[in-house]
Recover the amino acids of this structure.
């Protein structure tokens, strides 16, 4: 058994419980954590005493802020390939969660980003609260949404997923439900009692039925209409075939929210934006999560050798000057061949594959 106190594996009553245990790092996901979770899922799948699995984050800030991007930065800067091994096991875990034969209950309370989405949004029972902030913010660090993120976002209503993938915007509970990233809203005050019911409940009810006892309609953040109120301009603008045309349509609406989205895109990596749009459009045409994860592995592998990933992490996480110097710096400078490179075959023995 893998020993690693950054993830706590326990059995309580009829539940197998995974607790991500790096609260000071907002439970950022490491390779050993991925392996430990996979090992636990294997054990519980064959354990008749475990009716369902629960995953949650230690501390009060959130489930998981994503992968350990400091480690990815060091790997990319050194030109080594440890991140490829991490992603291979992480993406396999994402697919396994989606196909897990027992109910998989994810507590998406607080911050849930990047790899945290991969650990939760593929589950069968996905709970958000009024504190939830769910996002795939990869374009801000010169990366492309992964962990099945392009699968999920490409299947959100209309072009909502395109908007979220390109801007990296974080959404609250109501919008996470609308976009298909979650399926239950439970106020945070109810979580402690819900956990007790899931672990110690004696009526034998299935996990989804237990959660339904606590679920309520999700309030819109701040009383606004959220993404539902913006569907008209989002669908119209993000249906464009290029990022340049999306920019143009956003500015052409004359709407403050659309102009703000355009300004957000302007700050992202031009290469990452174009690769992300291409990945989303291709993911929409693929027939399963596994096929999309195979594509994402190619994309992530290519991103590891693109200068923007090292620069984006430097600006946002290492030096924190928030002033990345993207290369190339403008959308028109990103040639089609540079985007196509993200989808090129990796060669025999190097691809991520599923049965």
């Amino acid at each position: 058994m893998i020993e690693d106190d950054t993830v706590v594996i326990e059995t309580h009553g009829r539940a197998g419980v995974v607790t991500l245990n790096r609260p000071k790092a907002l439970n950022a996901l490491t390779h050993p954590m991925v392996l430990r979770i996979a090992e636990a899922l294997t054990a519980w799948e064959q354990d008749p005493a475990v009716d369902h699995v629960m995953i949650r984050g230690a501390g009060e800030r959130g489930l998981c802020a994503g992968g350990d991007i400091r480690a990815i930065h060091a790997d990319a800067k050194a030109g080594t390939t440890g991140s490829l091994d991490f992603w291979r096991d992480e993406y396999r875990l994402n697919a396994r969660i989606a196909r897990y034969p027992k109910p998989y209950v994810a507590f998406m309370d607080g911050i849930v980003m990047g790899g945290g989405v991969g650990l939760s949004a593929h589950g069968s029972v996905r709970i958000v609260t009024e504190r939830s902030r769910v996002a795939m913010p990869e374009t801000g660090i010169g990366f492309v949404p992964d962990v099945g993120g392009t699968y999920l976002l490409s299947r959100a209503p209309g072009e909502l997923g395109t908007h979220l993938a390109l801007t990296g915007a974080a959404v609250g509970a109501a919008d996470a439900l609308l976009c298909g990233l979650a399926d239950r809203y439970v106020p945070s005050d109810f979580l402690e009692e819900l956990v007790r019911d899931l672990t110690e409940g004696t009526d034998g009810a299935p996990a989804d039925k237990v959660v339904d006892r606590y679920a309520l309609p999700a309030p819109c953040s701040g009383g606004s209409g959220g993404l539902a109120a913006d569907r008209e301009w989002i669908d119209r603008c993000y249906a464009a075939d290029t990022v340049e045309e999306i920019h143009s349509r956003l500015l052409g609406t004359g709407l403050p929210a659309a102009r703000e989205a355009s300004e957000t895109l302007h700050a992202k990596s031009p290469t990452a934006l174009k690769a992300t749009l291409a990945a989303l459009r291709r993911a929409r045409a693929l027939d399963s999560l596994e096929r999309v994860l195979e594509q994402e592995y190619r994309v992530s592998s290519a991103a590891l050798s693109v200068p923007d990933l090292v620069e984006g992490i430097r600006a946002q996480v290492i030096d924190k000057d928030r002033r990345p110097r993207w290369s190339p710096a403008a959308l028109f400078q990103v040639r089609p061949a540079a985007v196509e490179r993200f989808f090129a075959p990796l060669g025999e023995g190097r691809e991520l594959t599923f049965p």
Observations:
- The mean pLDDT is 95.
- The first strand starts at residue 7 and ends at 12.
